[in-house]
């Protein structure tokens, strides 16, 4: 990646004089849009799309007086990409469901229209009973879903387990193409993920 300054500068000191230092954040315009046929296009759908889904699920439960089947602790992390997002758990949890984008690629079965359930990633397999429960929910709800293995990725569940937390972990989320670029998903993936999340929270 190359970042060019639209300034006439020729030395590091001239760049510093503009107030720009090594380590400064660069914030890209996300170019968010939803097309008429339901495609969601933006930078940073990973993982703003999943954050929006969690907030929408809680709002739906509040607006409709729906009581969750268990006590819930929602945690929004900022360091998942560097591997230690939930090494510290602020809640007493018996199981941990990570909501994260589902990868889309040639060697994967998920698509931009599905809710993806991850059975295994680079850190190893996720809890079999928990993952199987999500799959059964998806089947009962007639949802479009895919079960995949992400051999090059890890999640907040992985960080929590590495930190020694004795929890059952699973992961699911909407299919998103072109992660870390101009990303794309579809409202169908959002709807399928929302329905599966609601089943998990309330059944």
Overview features:
5 helices, globular, Aminopeptidase, 203 residues, alpha/beta, 30% helix, 6-stranded mixed beta sheet, 3-stranded antiparallel beta sheet
- What's the CATH architecture name? 3-Layer(aba) Sandwich
Determine the fraction of residues in helical runs and give it as a percent range.
Answer: 25-40%
State the shape.
globular
CATH class membership? Alpha Beta
CATH superfamily: Zn peptidases
Q: Give average pLDDT, whole number.
A: 94
State the distance separating the first and last CA atoms.
46 Å
Low-pLDDT windows of residues: none
| Cα gyration radius (Å) | 19 Å
The SSE order reads: HEEHEEEEHEHEEH
CATH topology, what is it called? Aminopeptidase
Largest sheet: 6 strands, mixed
SS strand fraction: 15-25%
Q: Helical region count? A: 5
Structural class: alpha/beta
**Total number of distinct structural domains:** 1
| Total number of strands | 9
Describe the overall structure.
With 203 residues, the protein is of the alpha/beta class. It has a single domain, classed as Zn peptidases (Aminopeptidase, 3-Layer(aba) Sandwich), CATH 3.40.630.10. Helix content is 30%, strand content 21%. The protein has 5 helices and 9 strands; from the N terminus they run αββαββββαβαββα. Strands 3, 4, 5, 6, 7 and 8 form a 6-stranded mixed sheet that branches. It has a 3-stranded antiparallel sheet with strand order 1-2-9. Strand 5 and strand 6 form a beta hairpin. Helix 2 crosses helix 5. The longest helix has 19 residues. The mean pLDDT is 94.
């Amino acid at each position: 990646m190359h970042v060019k300054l639209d300034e006439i500068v020729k030395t590091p000191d001239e760049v510093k004089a503009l107030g720009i230092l090594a380590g400064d954040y660069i914030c890209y315009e996300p170019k968010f849009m939803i097309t008429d046929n339901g495609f969601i296009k933006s930078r940073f759908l990973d993982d703003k799309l999943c954050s929006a889904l969690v907030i929408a699920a809680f709002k739906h439960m509040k607006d409709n007086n729906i009581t969750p089947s268990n006590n819930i602790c929602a945690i929004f992390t900022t360091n998942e990409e560097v591997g230690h997002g939930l090494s510290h758990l602020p809640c007493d949890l018996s199981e941990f469901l990570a909501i994260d984008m589902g990868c889309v690629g040639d060697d994967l079965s998920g698509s931009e229209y599905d809710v993806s359930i991850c059975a295994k990633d680079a850190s190893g397999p996720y809890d079999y009973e928990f993952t199987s429960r999500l799959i059964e929910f998806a089947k009962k709800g007639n949802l479009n879903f895919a079960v995949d293995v992400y051999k090059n990725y890890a999640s907040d569940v992985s960080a929590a387990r590495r930190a020694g937390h004795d929890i059952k972990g699973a992961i699911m989320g909407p299919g998103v193409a072109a992660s870390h670029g101009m990303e794309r998903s579809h409202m169908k993936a959002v709807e399928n993920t929302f329905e599966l999340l609601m089943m998990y929270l309330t059944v």
